[in-house]
Amino acid sequence: MSEQEAGTAAGVITEAEALRRLHGARAHSAYDRAVAACRYAGVGQDQAEVVPRDPVGRAANALRLSAKSLAALTASAPDPAADARCARNAAATAALAAQVAAARDGDTTPSATPSATASITAFVTAAPTAPAAASATALRAALDASRAAAAAAGGGARGQDTALNACAQEAERHAVATARAAGWFEAITMAD
What is the pTM of this model? Predict the structure, then answer.
């Protein structure tokens, strides 16, 4: 048994394992946000398409791929760069799902579907109702969390830069808080 294996067996956590926990927790949190936003918008993984043609298909497909990525994360050895990329991809999925959920709140007609709504830009700049304002805030936070996760995973950071990881962690916390404020997590509670 090597010295490193002996340390791990004795309960000492390696830096790679600590980073795995950090990135894994952020990836799972972002995936949970994506699931919540998709449920809120009425999007299920069964709506995934091989070649997505609309926002609903893209969100459903991204959700399906993120689930597979998270399963692979737990089955592999810790690798800070790969683990950070998994968290980045989950955050991107959550941002895509947030766009669909925000679009749902942006159109008040009963027959509106996420694929038939106005553009996200028009939604965010319009005078929003209370639910739409909360969704717009949650969408901006999701986009910020996605950018922060990309910075932590990219370039020379490769998932190991303490400051970038802390920034991504804080952006994820804020994205969760704003998604809760928008009521997106309530869809999970009602569905369970």
Answer: 0.82
pLDDT value at position 36? 97
Distance CA 178, CA 33 (A): 10
Mean pLDDT of 134-163: 96
**What contacts 128, CB < 8 A, 6 or more positions away?**
106, 135, 136
pLDDT tens, position by position, 115-132: 434 444 444 445 557 789
Determine the 3-state secondary structure of 2 from DSSP.
Answer: coil
How many whole angstroms separate alpha carbon 141 and alpha carbon 177?
Answer: 9
CA-to-CA dists, residue 162 to 7, 23, 80, 90, 142, angstroms: 23, 12, 12, 20, 21
With helix as H, strand as E and coil as C, how does 120-178 read? HHHHHHCCCCHHHHHHHHHHHHHHHHHHHHHHHHCCCCCCCCHHHHHHHHHHHHHHHHH
